[in-house]
Amino acid sequence: MSESVREGDIGEPGDASADQGVPPGPGISILVALTDDDRAPATIEVAQALTDRHGGKPRVLYVIEISASVPEAAMVAVALEDALRDPQRRAVQEAEMRTLLGLDGDDKSSWPFSIEVGNVASVVVHESRTRGAGLILMGLNRHAALGRAIGRDTARQVMSHAEVPVLAVRDTLHGLPKRVVVAVDFSRASIRAARLARRLMDDSGEMLLLFIESGLLAGDTESSEGLQLIRDRGVEAAFNELIEDLNSDAPVSISTTVLKGGNPSERILRFCEDSDPDLIAMGSQQHRFLDRLLLGSTARAVAADGRWSVLVTPPARAL
After folding, report:
1. Among 6, 30, 229, 278, who pairs with 177 as Cys (CB 3.0-4.6 Å)?
2. pTM score, two decimals?
3. d(Cα 18, Cα 245) in Å, to the nearest integer?
C-alpha cells in the first residue's frame, strides 16, 4: 500500500458537465425524499445545512407506500389517493405532516412540501425529473441481510434509476459531513463524485481519496478511461491532477490511499471500518444488464451495507 498526503484549497468545480445534474455556482436544487418519520430528522437537518451553505429552498416530498402484504392494500392506496386529490383535504394532510416533521417553523416553513402515494423509488425518480432537481436527498437504513439480498433497499433502487446524484443519509449524520471517503478510479463518474463531495462537505473537514488497483478498473465502462490514464501517467500523477482540480477556495485536508486488488466493495467497506467516515462518495457506472443482474455494482453494494451515509453520482448521459 502506498500513501501520500497533500493539503490545499478546495472549491467548487468550474465544469458544469462534470457535475451532471448539479449546476455550478452557489445554488443546488435539492429534492428531499422522506418515507418514514424515524429517518426524517437527520435528513432534514442535512438539507438545512446544505441550504445554509448553498442557498435555495429544498423541495420536500413525503411518499406513502402501501405494502402489498397489507390486507386490502389496493383499497387503502385508492382511498389515500382520492383524499389527496381534494385540494382542501390535501392541504390539511400536508399541514399536519409538516408539523409532525418539524417543517412548520423557521426557514423550513417556506420549503415546498407535498405528499404522494405509490412506489417510493418510482415516485421519487419521477418527481426529481419533473422538478428538475439537481440532488436527491433521502434517508438510509441498514436492512437485514435478506432484505439487502433481494433488493428491497429503496435508496439503492433510487440510485439505480435516478439521473442525478443521490445522497442517502444515515441518522448518525447531523449536518455537513466532515470526514469523507471518495472511492476513485479516475473515470468521469468518480471525478464527478469527488467534485460533488467537496461541494457538500464541511470546509474544515477531511477528504480521503481511495484507489483500488485492478478492482475498480474492470470492464468496458467509463473506468477504461481511468485505466488508460493510469497506464499513461501513473497513479500518483492521476491523484495529483485530481487534487489540483479539487483545489480552489477553502482549505481542506486531502489524503490518498492505494490498495492492491481484492473485491472493490469489500475493500472499500474495510477501509471505512478503519477510517470511520461521515460519508462515502462514489460514481455509479453503466454496466451490461446481465452483469448488473448477476454481480451488482460496487456503488450499490456499498449503499446496501448501510453503515455510512453514501453519495452516488450517476453515469454520464449521452448528449
Report:
1. 278
2. 0.82
3. 11
d(CA 168, CA 46): 10
Q: Could you tell me the fold of the domain covering 2-313? A: Rossmann fold (3.40.50)
Domain boundaries, the chain: 2-313
Residue 287, amino acid: H
**Cα–Cα distance measured from residue 187 to residue 49, given in angstroms and rounded to the nearest whole number:** 29
> Within 13 A of 155's CA, how many CA atoms are on the CB side?
34
Backbone dihedral angles phi then psi of residue 312, each to the nearest 5 degrees: -125, 125
pLDDT confidence bin for 143, thresholds 50/70/90: low
| Beta carbons within 10 angstroms of residue 9's beta carbon | 12
SS3 at position 309: strand
pLDDT at 15 over 60: no
Distances from the Cα of 10 to the Cα of 192, 216, 242, 277, 316, angstroms:
14, 25, 11, 19, 23
